[in-house]
Specification:
alpha/beta; six-stranded parallel beta sheet; homotetramer
């Protein structure tokens, strides 16, 4: 039985407590949050929880095996470091850290202590993303042309990070998981409308070594919720509409074959427009699957797919995007 | 009665012939196309048409008052110049020309000769765009935050131009029409997947003097047809989905009001989420409305909203976008 | 503090326990279910609950004030009768009872004992239905022409009732709530595909005294989930799509005005096609609102909108529909 | 070369003229309409057409081989009879005639004279309906459970017929074409809201010998256009949404397998929920395909799939539906 301590009971914390509580071979014994009102709310639903406003009580506790960290990103490094130093595994909210340097230090520390880091890239545990990975790994799409994601909403304005650090971790972690090709450079544009120095609209282009390109459109100021990803391949093309409750993924047998010949009018273009298939997708709660996987990784000493290195790769792309954005869309190599 | 000659009977030419034929105070008497098969097709539907493979027969004809040019863009300048020199008004496909320089020369020539240039920015004559302009002019949206357009499809690969020159003229001309603010700089990214040197996927960010930003996502390799524009304003936000046959425009009473206070946790964000209104939109055929307007501008010596300068502004943005794209997303001032 | 006992912990029971637990001035102390496995599941989430397989322990308990009954409909009468006889209020799943006769007896008993009956017509507590009632009460739609509902799905086949008794209670209770006119006759058609004598597809027409008509299409064998209601009025027309997460209700300024003149060709029809408005709808959990309302009705001795008579009217229409269905669509007066 | 005369140039006539004009081995030489303004409109587009207000000029003309009749239904019998008596084939708008008796007489007459009757059931020539027929004929859906059609709109109120005679011919002709089972009885309900004696809302249930059932919901008073047909089969289920421009047909691998055992709780239900496939559909203009087919049937003496008997079967169902509707939903055997 893995004993989990949870630090942070704001927006996402309650989901973490609920899911680890329901997980076989795990229990949640203690909760820390700087806000006493949050602790009170938690106590109503889970009367058995030990609660505290000082997270150190959890990190030093001899009863606790692992700690789930669901606090603002700027606190991640300190809390995670303290947790690892006290010999406990960590399950940590995305983005992993505020900087590449912090991520590298935590990875190093965990390796030295032989502890697990799992970064909560929840989407990797959805039926939709798993199906996409399966389709790409099975070469159903063929050589990839582009990965084009839109994630906009009348979003929760964050206090401490811009829209890139808030929304793009989802998409970078998904892309990192499903696509084998490695990104080589980034250009990001965007703007801040409220004089906070924190952009609320951003557009990111990620270049790859072959001609593949990825693009991310994120926006906290959209009147409608859009969560659509198009993945174009030579053999098939895929649309993932995560706002739909059914038929989230559609795979189109559509494409183009181009034969270049001499002269501008001798281009031969063959268009293919066949059937569309929407595969069945299993839809258990992703965080539930991920919680079970975390326990399994600890018990069986497995390296999680969403380990510290996965978190680091995402943070590196975020950091680079942010830097490009701050420098008028400068082209920056990764 | 304005006698129209039409040059070019490929994809768009038949629509031009049909609409000018049906226009009061206009008739189409002659047609030129380098392709005899195109002329034959035209003759079946319009037995009265004089047809020729040499467009000069039309430009020098003393019977013709105006010429509609629906040929590939690289031929625009030569044909338009010849037409204007022969004292005839021009109605010309978008994009106006292949370069700013060409556009400027044609404008100068037309002014000297006191002739009309109308660039076929068809979308300006749709009910949807006219409604958007009405809403923005009436300050229904308030100060604009962003203009975000997606126009993707399994598109017709062009022989001579990339996806920017093919699709973005629609969006640049619409934005130029509905938004008063003037763009100041452009960054464009994208790629070519077929080794033609002609990009099939592109992303353009347009900066404005205030914090407004515009973004354009164009793609010839999408399995699905998307034509969506989001316009975010301080007072209202608008979604224009041109693929819908009904309820193309939705105006959302949604937004955010942010009060910055000292300290990271003292941010006060008020979210507003009210009704959505989808205004009734009239849907006559846009090209029909535009054809009538062209005749009206000639007969009453009016300056068209889509005159040569409108065409020039669009070409300038296209040229700049293309230059940025070719230079790894370089930030280029307009 | 109202002490609630809950009988039945199958599909809906967990929602009832959770919502009454979270309600001010209420607590859930005891649970009965014939299935020990259900009790065990409940105990995990709510360790404080007293559980029993004999519901009589609850109905005779002196600590319990009211009982929520979430058992199969054929058990409703017996349990409800026993509960009322023991002086406790009832909150009871839809449909209220298996027959008009049973409903009448329970109402009589409750009145004699001065106890509350609340039939769980949950939809009456959704933001959507409340908005529809507001629009109809405010005469926004004008004289009603028709009420047309489709509720189909790959549905849970019930063991003891047909699709009418399973799905139509939702729609009859909604119609009964939002429409003042009283139904006068019913015709129902449908069929059973599995030789169970329990129809899985049914179509019901309800006639009213004026020319209004209502229609209900219910189906357990649909591959897709449809929950759409159209309400046509002289002034406005409304579409309620409950499957949408946003913009559930759309009010159309569309209609027809007909002037009958002499002779078949002298009909004058004016079509009106104006704006569409999608009003903002509040979306708290309906069962939560209803649970609070039940407590409020008990504490303040109010007559619920969804009282026994409401339940009776619905059961009367169900019984009549079923009778018509069994008699080849016989026209039966209510 | 088949010389076609066209009678009637109202709503549908222009489409008939245009399509037969464009058909190989056919030409349209003459047009009759009682309304001179209609003839004038036709003359503008087709200057070569001979026009007349007296249709007899066409039926007696020795140059004309076949006549397309696009007049109101109450005139069909007289014009068709006159045409056949004068030895010409007929292509006639749906519904074929106003009564079964009329349809039978025309069929008899055509057979005696060895002439073709083609009833313009245009939908049979769409890619969607042809795909549905292919799927059903290929036993992809398995034994059929139900056929459920909704065809509603803010419709053109007809002067002389109710909504059943106006809209249901489409659906009856489609069902007659794609489904082998024969209907045995009909129940129809509905109402008229404008005191014209012509119902604008109607609901029709069609019973078959096995447990299959069909249902048709038609309405001239809907604010939105819905054209959806669900076809439930034992093996697969199909949704045809004709309002969509793409993905009109979706085939779902979803269903139910029920094993009845003794006792109410021993029902074993297996739900199947697999992939969805949206087959590619060809979308040439249906009337164009049908026009070519008419010429082919004449030239090669083939019996059309939409011959007089097809028209008769549809009229029989319409007549029966109307009779049931006028008799409070009486169950009427076919």
């Amino acid at each position: 039985m893995i004993n989990i301590g949870v630090i942070g009971y704001g927006y996402w914390g309650p989901n973490i407590v609920r899911n680890f509580t329901g997980t076989k071979d795990a229990k949640v014994s203690s909760l820390a949050d700087v806000n006493p009102a949050a602790l009170e709310r938690a106590h109503k639903s889970y009367p058995h929880l030990k609660t505290t406003t000082d997270y150190h009580e959890l990190t030093i506790s001899s009863e606790i095996d692992a700690i789930a960290i669901a606090t603002p990103v700027f606190t991640h490094f300190e809390i995670a470091k303290n947790t690892l130093e006290n010999g406990k595994h960590i399950f940590i909210e995305k983005p992993f850290t505020s900087s590449v340097k912090e991520a590298e230090k935590l990875i190093e520390l965990a390796e030295k202590k032989n502890l697990k880091i799992m970064v909560d890239h929840t989407f990797l545990f959805t039926g939709a993303v798993r199906k996409i990975k399966e389709l790409i790994d099975g070469n159903v799409l063929g050589t990839l042309y582009y990965y084009d994601s839109t994630r906009v909403n009348l979003g929760l304005f964050q206090h401490d990070v811009n829209v890139i650090w808030d929304l793009v971790p989802h998409d970078f972690s998904i892309m990192d998981y499903v696509i084998k090709e490695k990104p080589v450079a980034i250009i990001a544009t965007g703007t801040d409308h409220f004089g906070r120095g924190l952009e609320d609209v951003a557009y990111i282009t990620v270049y790859f070594n072959n001609n593949m390109v990825a693009h991310f459109n994120v926006n906290w100021l959209s009147p409608v919720k859009v969560r659509t990803t198009l993945i174009g391949g030579e053999k098939k093309m895929l649309v993932w509409n995560d706002v739909e409750s059914d038929e989230k993924i559609k795979v189109y047998d559509r494409g183009v074959k181009i034969e270049n010949r001499e002269g501008v009018y001798n281009l031969l273009v063959n268009y293919r427009s066949g059937d569309m298939l929407s595969p069945r997708i299993d839809t258990p709660e992703a965080l539930k699957v991920e919680a079970e996987y975390f326990i399994e990784c600890i018990l069986n000493n497995k390296v999680p797919i969403n380990d510290g290195y996965s978190g680091l790769r995402v943070v590196k792309m975020l950091e680079t995007s942010d830097k490009s954005l701050k420098n008028k869309g400068k082209f920056i190599k990764l």
